[in-house]
Amino acid sequence: MEIFRKRKWLGLIILGILLRIVLAGFVYHTDIKGQYHEAQLLDYGVAQGYQRGVDETTPLHYPPPIYLLYNIYPKVGNLIFSDYFDDWMKDWSYSQVANHPKIFRDLLAMKVPLILFDLLVAFLLIKIVSSEKKGLALAVWLFNPFSLYAIYAFSQFDIIPTSLVLLSVFFWKRRKFNFSYLSLGLAAGVKVFPLLLLPYYLILDARNIKMRLVSAGIAIVSFIICLAPILTSPVALKSVFLSNLTSGVFQARIPLGSSMFLPIYVALYLFLLILIMFKAVAKPSIESAIFLVLGTLLGLSSFNPQWMIWVMPFLLMLSCEAKIGWKETLGMMLSYVGVVLLINDSFVSVGLFRAVNNTFATLPSLRSFLDRVGVGEQLQGVANALLSAFVLLINLEILKKISVPFKPLGSKPKIMQILILWIVGLISIFFLAHIPLTIFGRYLDTNHMVEQSRISLSDGTKVSQRIFVDNPNFFQIQIRLKNVGRKNNQIHAFSLSDDRGNLLKRFDIGGLAIGDDFDLDLTFPSIADSQGKHFILEIQAPKEVGTGTEIILPYNKDANDGWLSVNGQVIPGKLAYYTYYKVGGYWSNVGYTLNNLFQKL
């Protein structure tokens, strides 16, 4: 193919691959580890693995192919993974990343399938778009930050079924319809959302009824074959079909009374289908129809961030072919980022960098700050409304042009410009991420969060725990408590003293501030010379505590170091707690991250 024979385009592809290697190796979201862990359940058998997932309250929500891939791939490609990978799969502690000496290698190895299918999308795009737009399509797919964020930040496998849907479009354009429907069925066999496209395929297919039904049968049979290992397991089928996608289709609704409602997405889905069926609008292209179906779903549901991958290749195709405007495309992508960043989860932003510094996992989400001033939910709603507005605008452009598309300045991207932009961008993100890390970050000093037995804080109970600190700038203790049913509303006193008994800080905590399985943060001014010293944490219960309302202190009875006492009597064990410290100012945090990064490379 001519584009691959040109040195400039070959350099662009190599640069795109290197960028994906960097993002795959250094960005970590726990979802991908969870899916590899769930895939190990298939060692008991496919259907049995789904049953064990339900029994262990970690149900397997996807069809078997992805779990088979994630189960077999580490075994066949074991040379790619580190020797520590199997141990890491069992480590779900707070320090799981810090404990892994070769975390970057395993993150990259885990995401190799995503990289391959991502590159397949790039290849298919340049095979599908017109010859004068191939370079533009390749450059935009390889380097646009939105698809890279959706694919590698969340590390879900949605790029796999999306690439199969795009393969279906590739065959459709070449009028190889049976292969097109086959690819669509296989895509649904990986993740069920492509089933929504099948009715539109049948309406847009200009062949006779018999040929269409044969092709539809091919799609359905290929989908059923993917489900074959679990067809006899009602538990597994329920786990697959009652997923977030199923609920998402019905989330946006209008109450009609008497427990009835109108699902807005379903109504629009059928309305668009009827418009096309009765030729009330000109038949859209197959990629346009895919956006109508999946883009509308995104605009009308509380979607998972990775769902945006479903529409990105088709949005790019429509933009490159000037069927929709670039301004609308950019607006939709920016509003998508706004929606995602306002999710109350730090692992949609700076928390993704925990692989290079585990302390990023301790940072609060952007939404949590906005909620403190009471505007988080409102801004989330505005971002969702903006996304829906851009989806509607693009839908209108597809069905009937309402504006002249804005065309990009050129279709011949320069490699050095792209390289410089990405290098500057990545370096800027790295340094900017350390600003909230310096202000809000906390570094783990000691981890004793083990629960085996419990102490009941009944009438006047006094518990004393001696704590040893390994690092300077000790500033916080996080202790596990249980106020079952939040029945206790009394004041409990928590105090921290040095090893000579001098009181450093006292906290009076009301019972209503403590919930079930609650981690209480006790924060105090940083103690610069804390390294190698002992401190004493005392917890004093009220004199009278109602029966059945006692707050529970979990502890590890096997940690017998003589440092835990109840009412002055030493007992074997250690309370469940973490201690935290700060490394210093901004450049100390940057230096810590760089040192950690180079140690594990």
Plain-language structure description:
The protein is an alpha+beta fold and 601 residues long. The protein folds into 2 domains: 2-435, no CATH class; 443-581, Jelly Rolls (Sandwich). Helix content is 50%, strand content 15%. The strands form 4 sheets. It has a 6-stranded antiparallel beta sheet, with no helix packed on it. Strand 12 and strand 13 form a beta hairpin. Helix 7 runs antiparallel to helix 8, helix 10 (159-173) runs antiparallel to helix 11 (177-190) and helix 19 runs antiparallel to helix 21. It starts with a helix and ends with a helix. The mean pLDDT is 90.
Could you say how many structural domains there are in total? 2
Strand order of the largest sheet: 8-7-10-5-12-13
Shape: elongated
Give the end-to-end Cα distance, rounded to a whole number of Å: 36 Å
- Average of per-residue pLDDT values: 90
Count of β-strands: 15
Rg on CA atoms, Å = 28 Å
SS field, number of helical segments? 23
Largest sheet: 6 strands, antiparallel
Structural class: alpha+beta
Low-confidence stretches: none
Strand content: 5-15%
- In helices, the fraction of residues equals 40-55%
Short account of what is shown:
The chain is α+β, with helices and mostly antiparallel strands. The protein is built from 23 helices and 15 strands.
Spell out the blueprint of helices and strands.
Layout: H1 2-5, H2 7-26, H3 30-39, H4 46-55, H5 64-76, H6 85-89, H7 103-128, H8 134-143, H9 145-153, H10 159-173, H11 177-190, H12 198-204, H13 209-227, H14 234-241, H15 244-249, E1 253-257, E2 260-263, H16 264-277, H17 286-299, H18 312-320, H19 326-341, H20 366-372, H21 376-399, H22 415-440, E3 443-447, E4 453-457, E5 462-469, E6 474-481, E7 491-498, E8 503-510, E9 518-527, E10 533-540, E11 551-556, E12 564-566, E13 569-571, E14 574-575, E15 577-581, H23 586-600
Helix pairs in contact: 2-7, 2-8, 3-5, 7-8, 7-10, 8-18, 10-11, 11-13, 16-17, 17-18, 17-21, 19-21
